[in-house]
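hi! just following up on the protien thing from before. the input was this:
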Amino acid sequence: MRGLTLEATELWKERALIATEELRVYFKVKGANRPLKAVDGVSVSVEKGKTLGIVGESGSGKTTLAKAIVKLVKPTAGRIYFEGKDIYKLSKSEEKQFRRRVQMVFQDPFDAIDPIYSVYDAVSEGAKILGLTRSKSELDEIVFRALEQVRLTPAQDYAQRRVTSLSGGQRQRVAIARVLAMNPDALILDEPVSMLDASVRGEIMKIMGDLKIQGKTFVMITHDIATLKFFADEVVVMYLGRVMEVANSKEITRNPLHPYTQALVAAVPVPDPRYKVKSLAKGEIPSALNPPAGCPFHPRCPLAQEICRTQVPELRRVAPGRLAACHFV
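and the predicted 3d structure came back as:
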């Protein structure tokens, strides 16, 4: 973790808006004699107004980590903090505020919104459940303002449409608007543009950029490390439920240290038909139900040696502001 002493760790927790400490999320699998370790000892944090990017291939535990942060998945062990308080020790009033202040935008807008809803129903649902308004006119104002923020205008016209009449990009804007209607401090984004066309992705990221300028805090889950270069302040690289590397977003894409991070950066497409995508990682990510011994990345790592097959590398500070879990960094 960032702090090497208890005192430093406590200071880190006080400074962060959201933090996890040695978080573990294990699932029982029918017929298996061992748990699936989706998240295995992850400590991350993000300060207010900053953006934390979490990157890795499918199966790395990113989405499970995000769901744990918003209490959709209960941890097996470890702690999750919001403004220095354990989210499982909040009072009822604090719990209600937490639900409003930390919101999640899911990957698939077709699954995230009930198809029988109108746009107005979808955007207003959370505000009504949390009792954020006292009148229909106040609710209208919240809904229309949220739709304008995601550039669905005229807002009054879009509010009356059925969700099923919208394109994928428009549905994702509605999914973002329903979150903004609750005026959250932090948005947890789970691959918010991965299912959208390239032309729409830029528009959604522009909306996110505007919200960042307004001071919103983000935790962005993605498999595309290139996107984080321009959007995130700090990047956490995950693999098989563990953290492989942590660094500033510019530095981690310019000079990746961990072999897995190097593989992610090397796989970023280049707009040149003559360029062949490099592959520094062999094969596919193993199952979290049966992870390799030693370093979880060693079966795919071009630099693996005997120590990698037997000893799990500690996540340690390798340079100012940089952490890596590799025996040879």
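Confidence is low (pLDDT under 50) at residues 1-9.
Residues 93 and 99 are 10 Å apart (CA to CA).
cheers
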